[in-house]
């Protein structure tokens, strides 16, 4: 079972990749709108990255729920998604 | 001599995107006269002239690029229906456009540009009266905004990226005596338009405004709002170039929009938007307009469409008032209820008293479309019109 820390790290890396920012700019508490790159477009890039890398099903409900890294981590853990 | 070019889409087309893809094909090539897309992915392009052999694969490649960018991985939106009064009884089912032309109530100056006559003008004034009463409900302050907008304003709110295809650019002759003299002496129009050397014109610094509310946000930009919330109303000419999709009063290049704009906290803006919708529902019931209100997305350009539309849909940022057009068994968006989250507050540094970025929203009505939809539903005989409209027109 993956640890909390490794989920955080994986999601931070995924978000940094999607938003094309250095990983140092992405903290484990980061949320939508808190850095300039996490706009509506940036948010969708993250969603599509989650979909392609982790096989997470992106629905409209998912889009509105996963608006922070802690929310993403909790969602992945609840749904038993492996990374 | 026009020719037809069939193209088979190279991936399955989601049903909800067929219309949107069809409209975006207008921007693939200037030689396209019309484009139709079937749910099965059969695309038919009618071209102004035959292509050279080497041009066809280039054109087909562009078409497939549109299809791929818009359709691949697209999310099926969950359409939310907020109101449904589309089955209200209506006395008319003809296209009012030919009748308007015949009565000289409409005169087409060019594609998407019309002179509007007395009947339509009075109808537009009637609907403006409704919208002004709506604005008064919110003590909206009246403003007048310019028709021109600086290019750097639209750049700052990512408009170039989101809607490049619909922009209308403004320029003028360079302030050079020789250039101006040459223009005065030689300018003429040919079948393509004004026949003038391109370097006669200044760099483009200004565009025709595509919306009304942007002007307010820029007027408020880079300073504290100074209050908890604000409501403003304005009417203005808006310009959105829609290429071969320009059609009658349904899709104008130059149209008029009345907006009521809200600025404040998220809770405040969403509450105002909802209150406006409920008020309009009552107003439209008094007229008997047949319409429904459903979630919608803006016509983002091809590369942006998939992501922006999905986001807009997921967060329920936009709802459209879609009036029934009986003559074509379809609907026409005559207004919209929009919520922008804190997009303008963040990008334009509009801050609330607590220091947080302001949220904004607007309710917007297309005046020509509203009048057109009314005529499409009730026709030209005042005896068939709802009493409030008839009395206003006869008064």
What is the strand and helix layout of this fold?
The complex is a heterodimer of chains A (83) and B (395).
Chain A: H1 4-19, H2 40-54, H3 60-65, H4 69-78
Helix pairs in contact in A: 1-2, 1-4
Chain B: E1 3-8, H1 18-24, E2 32-37, E3 42-47, H2 55-71, E4 81-85, H3 96-102, E5 106-110, E6 113-116, H4 118-137, E7 141-142, E8 148-150, H5 151-156, H6 159-162, E9 169-170, H7 177-186, E10 189-190, E11 193-194, E12 206-208, H8 213-220, E13 223-224, E14 230-239, E15 254-264, H9 266-287, E16 291-295, H10 302-314, E17 318-325, E18 330-339, H11 343-347, E19 350-351, E20 359-366, H12 367-378, H13 387-394
Parallel strand pairs in B: 7-14, 13-19
Antiparallel strand pairs in B: 1-3, 2-3, 4-16, 5-6, 8-12, 9-12, 10-11, 14-15, 15-20, 16-17, 17-18, 18-20
Helix pairs in contact in B: 2-10, 4-12
Task: Describe this protein's structure.
Chain A starts with a helix and ends in a 5-residue tail after the last helix. Chain A is globular. Chain A is mostly helical and 83 residues long. The model of chain A has no long low-confidence stretch (mean pLDDT 88). Chain A contains 4 helices and no strands. Chain B is built from 13 helices and 20 strands. An 8-stranded mixed sheet of chain B has the order 4-16-17-18-20-15-14-7. A 3-stranded antiparallel sheet of chain B has the order 1-3-2. A 3-stranded antiparallel sheet of chain B has the order 8-12-9. The relative contact order of chain B is 0.16. The model of chain B has no long low-confidence stretch (mean pLDDT 96).
């Amino acid at each position: 079972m993956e640890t909390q820390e490794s989920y955080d790290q994986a999601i931070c890396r995924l978000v940094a990749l999607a938003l094309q920012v250095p990983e140092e700019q992405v903290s484990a508490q980061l949320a939508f709108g808190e850095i300039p790159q996490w706009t509506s477009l940036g948010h969708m890039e993250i969603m599509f990255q989650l979909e392609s890398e982790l096989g997470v099903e992106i629905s409209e409900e998912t889009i509105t729920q996963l608006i922070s890294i802690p929310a993403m981590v909790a969602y992945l853990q609840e749904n038993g998604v492996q990374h | 001599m026009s020719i037809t070019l069939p193209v088979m889409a190279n991936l399955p087309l989601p049903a909800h995107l067929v219309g949107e893809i069809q409209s975006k094909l207008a921007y693939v090539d200037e030689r396209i006269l019309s484009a139709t897309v079937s749910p099965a992915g059969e695309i038919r392009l009618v071209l102004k002239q035959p292509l050279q052999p080497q041009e066809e694969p280039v054109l087909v490649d562009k078409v497939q690029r549109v299809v791929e960018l818009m359709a691949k991985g697209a999310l099926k939106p969950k359409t939310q229906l907020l109101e449904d009064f589309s089955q209200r009884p209506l006395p008319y089912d003809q296209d009012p456009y030919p009748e308007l032309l015949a009565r000289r109530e409409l005169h087409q100056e060019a594609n998407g540009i019309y002179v509007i006559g007395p009947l339509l003008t009075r109808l537009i004034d009637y609907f403006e009266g409704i919208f002004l009463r709506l604005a008064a409900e919110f003590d909206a302050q009246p403003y007048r905004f310019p028709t021109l907008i600086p290019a750097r304003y639209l750049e700052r709110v990512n408009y170039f990226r989101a809607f490049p295809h619909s922009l209308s650019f403004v320029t003028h002759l360079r302030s050079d005596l020789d250039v101006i003299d040459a223009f005065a002496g030689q300018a003429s129009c040919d079948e393509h338009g004004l026949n003038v050397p391109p370097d006669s014109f200044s760099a483009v610094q200004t565009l025709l405004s595509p919306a009304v509310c942007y002007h307010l946000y820029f007027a408020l930009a880079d300073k504290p709002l100074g209050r908890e919330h604000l409501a403003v109303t304005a009417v203005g000419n808006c310009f959105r170039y829609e290429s071969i999709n320009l059609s009658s009063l349904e899709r104008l290049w130059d149209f008029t929009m009345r907006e009521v704009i809200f600025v404040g906290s998220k809770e405040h803006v969403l509450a105002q938007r909802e209150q406006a919708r409920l008020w309009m529902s009552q107003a439209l019931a008094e007229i008997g307009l047949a319409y429904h209100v459903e979630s919608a997305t803006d016509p983002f350009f091809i590369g942006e469409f998939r992501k922006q539309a999905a986001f807009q849909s997921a967060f329920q940022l936009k709802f459209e008032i879609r009036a029934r057009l009986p003559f074509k068994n379809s609907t026409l968006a005559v207004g919209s209820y929009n919520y922008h989250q804190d997009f303008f507050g963040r990008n334009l540094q509009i801050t609330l008293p607590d220091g947080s970025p302001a949220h904004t929203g607007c309710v917007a009505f297309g005046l020509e479309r509203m009048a057109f939809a009314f005529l499409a539903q009730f026709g030209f005989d005042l005896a068939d019109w709802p009493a409030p409209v008839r009395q206003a027109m006869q008064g």
